[in-house]
Amino acid sequence: MDHGGHGMTMDLPPFTLGRGLHWSADPFFLVACMVGLGLYGWGVLRLRRRGDAWSAGRTASFVVGVLTIALVMCTRLNDYGMVMFSVHMVQHMVISMLSPILILLGAPMTLALRALPAAGRGRKGPRELLLMLLHSRYMRIVTHPAFTIPLFIASLYALYFTPLFDSLMGSRAGHLAMMVHFLAVGVVFFWPIIGVDPGPNRPGYLMRMLELFAGMPFHAFFGIALMMASQPMVTTFENPPASLGIDALTDQNAAGGIAWAFSEIPSVLVLIALLFQWHGSEQRQARRKDRAADRDGDQELEAYNAYLASLHARGR
Q1: What is the per-residue pLDDT across 2-41, written as a single tens digit (0 to 9) for each?
Q2: What distance in Å separates the CA atoms of residue 85 and residue 83, rounded to the nearest whole number?
């Protein structure tokens, strides 16, 4: 039996990490990763050729983010993920929670806006169209918490606990669409929270933290539900190939443990990044105030001191 064009998955030997990391590229994700890295590299090179700086940390974050996608979609992890719930859950967690965070910290939209040339007066080129998209009503809707949080939750419960998951896993196109969906959901969920690119619905840092913690517990509850189940809950993984030598319920429990534990990793990563961003924002605001004070002779401080002096004079 061939699952979705990923190879003869019924004949897979027992899973080991070494076997899982063997090269087995999904053509769509291989091309997408290569194009993404190529475009990002072009943007960085274009900036450097004209003497502009670009953060090496952002570049590293983006590259590692794309490579994490390749890790789970262009190796035999993708083959094992068709028949092992635990391996599939690793794919899901990485591509929906780790890869988006790293890619967003790489600020690809900011790089594109800086690298793309501006069109002439009265014309709309790629840069202008990208700006229109980033500030469009559509983007305001899909990045709003009222949309992103329910979508983030539904991607777990409405997918795995309904026949939709089995239907998608029945074909290569369905499996591919599901993985693209996981990545897209992760991007739109984390973008308003941690993204450094321009866009709508960018709340204050405290609200961003609340958005993060509003979604994360549902991953933990989902994992616990899988761990405590007394029978397989997903038809696709009910009868794993005999060559794997695994028990379906044990593998499902492992998948639940992965979902439960993995929810903590992005939470900590995002929280650390948010704290650094918050600190950087405060530092920039302080520098702006210092420059304003230098320009106007610190009139605001003088006015405040005069106000205190008038209060002191009244009290005498």
Answers
A1: 444 444 455 789 999 999 999 998 999 999 999 999 999 9
A2: 7
